[in-house]
Amino acid sequence: MRPQRSVAMLFALSVTMALLHRLTARAPLEGRATLAFGFLLLAAFVAGEVAQRARLPRVTGSLLVGFVVGPPWLGLVRREELEALRFLEDAAVALIAFTAGLQVRLGALAPSRAALARLATGAVTFPFVALTLVMVSVSPWFPLTVHHSFGDGVAVALVLGAWAAISSPVVTMAVLEEYEAGGEPAPRALLDVAIIQDVAVMILLALVLAAGKPLTSPGALNLKVAGIAMAGAVGSLAAGALSGFALSRYLPVVRRGPWPLVAALAFVAAAAAYLVQLEPVLVGLAAGVSVANIAPGETDRLRPELKRAAPLVTAAFFVLAGAGLRIGLLADVWPWMLLLAGLRVVSLRYGLRWAGHHADVTPALARDGWLGLISQAGTALALGHLARRAFPEWGVSLEALIVAMVSAHLVAGPICLRAALARTGGITGGSGGSRDSKAPIGTGAVVNSGRGGGGGSGGL
Questions:
Q1: What is the rounded distance in angstroms from the CA atom of residue 165 to the CA atom of residue 127?
Q2: What does pLDDT average to over the chain?
Q3: Which element (helix H / strand E) includes 401?
């Protein structure tokens, strides 16, 4: 589709939706939400074509068009309609996370276990330590802590340090699927590292809240939130593992079309997120890892089904996420945003360079891998919600800052990952080529073997 035609189609869709937006203003919420969802999906697919022509990831087009037509800008989709569609967004993110988890074979990770551990340590420790130390040093001037005690500033610095250590496996998986880069070693390693970060940081948050309690002034920190964070992480992983176990038992019985079972799992994860405050990302990841390792033979049946559904599921998640972006919140704190984002990027870069000193980490991954860990999404937003509950007096401002920062990283992340893939030749299919690799992610992802000597030709 030509760019001019795509832009004209987007304009026509927007005009039509603007008219329907006024005509249905008093219609029931369910009908308006359904109409909004259909419009957002159509706009996402057309914007994806435009983004692809501009050599950007399709998911970036979905994000940006959601932002433009959503409440932050044109308002063609109302805030209450997005809230009604939150269930579908959670189901979509759980399904993408399930696809990511499905690629992880624990047995296949054995040759690169030490290298992955070093990469994950660098990606978590360096951002956490860097942001914590810097924010402690500037706490007397930081707007959230300028009128509070030094101990309160330390607690906030610890939470922001935990936020900096999160990357999104969902965004990483979506971009790798689009460019069919999952067969390349470095992209596989980046997905593995993002999964480890997503799980580790929820536990890290509980620990830093517990450590910050003795430092804060009376009533400033609700320690119960640390228990909620730990219980949420463990409960989400347990629920996902049990769901994956059940799914692995039923898949051999279903001879045709396992897709309904997988879709049911995604909706169960979304329902769990709504009813008992579990994280759909962690539920989906744990379920995928469980199926991949309990019934590895069934994953070959699932992959084609998931691949066919990927464009629809990815478009649904990213356009809904784009419509909910809160970049406007950065207007009042943009200097601090630049400081936080800059610290996170620099520390990620040096964290992976430190990991590159390990003999099994490829030089290309150590040099450019930080670009693939910029993105943030669901778990980082959950950290913001927990931060609001942890600090009853001024947690709303802290949550607003975290949400705005996550929104900025959600937009920048896919572009950075695509740039890294293009720079290192990792784009092998989809928008960038035609090779389709079925190699499971995590198999020898970062090991310097005899195939490449230094590993630079196949790594990121």
A1: 6
A2: 84
A3: helix 395-424
